[in-house]
Amino acid sequence: ASACRNLIETPCEANTPTPWGVTKSTLLSSWSGGDKTYWVPSFVAVQAEVPVSQLSQYGLFSHDGVDQKDDAHSLSKNLVAAFVDARATGLETSIMDRDVPPLSFTPSSRLFGRPSEMGAFILGTWDVDRGMNVRPSDLPSDASKPVTEFGSNEEAVRNGSAVDTAGAVMYWMFPKALVEGVDKAASYGLPWRSMEGGFQEFIVERVSDEKAKVTYVTIECTNLHPLGQQKRDF
To answer: How many CB atoms lie within 10 A of CB 37?
Structure first.
């Protein structure tokens, strides 16, 4: 029921360079719609099994005592909390993170970075048992928006796993000026470009009473026509 997997498996084109991690190139429109002017150059998913107790004792529900929550939905939120806490120990936080609010899973809530600049925000959460899906339309009209479209995973949730499974999706972006600066340098021979933004997903499956399978997914998105060039950039 992964929301990111649902995204990359929908609009695919076979006759382009194969992105890292997938067999077809995924073409996307911008968040505001229109032509398919973006693509996904890489998709990565990393998976591991961990003790349920390791997740249930962390983060949001670590002080609940006997009422400790160990359902997949609660555990997926704790997984996000662990990720956010881990990156907060890096040196970049003194530069990037300005007045970051407490962790919230309300769509558009800022997780780290700066508002309307370089930052990461919650897109939504989903839960197979509860029939919850990621609904991009829930983002407030005045919120920072993802770089590209992101469809709901309603059908994937409806036809999802038989085990207790849930996840959370965040979106991130780089400042437009930074991306355009790198694109300008690339036009003079710099051998790489900067991603405009992307998505990350944190999934938890309760495979037994003691074990949970956690999956981290990341998708990068970039423009097919950097600096407005007419020809595709591949």
So the answer is: 14
Non-local (6+) Cβ contacts of 75 within 8 A are 52, 55, 56, 69, 166, 204, 206, 212
In angstroms, the CA 39 to CA 68 distance is 42
Closest C-alpha among 209, 202, 201 to residue 163 = 209
pLDDT tens digits, one per residue of 167-188? 999 999 988 888 889 888 988 8
The single-letter code of the amino acid at 27 is L
What are the tens digits of pLDDT across the range 10-67? 656 655 666 777 777 788 999 999 888 998 888 899 999 999 999 988 865 444 444 4
Residue ranges per domain, the chain?
Answer: 3-228
Residue 81: φ, ψ to 5°: -60, -40
> Where does 131-232 show beta strands of DSSP type E?
165-173, 197-206, 211-223
pLDDT of residue 136: 93
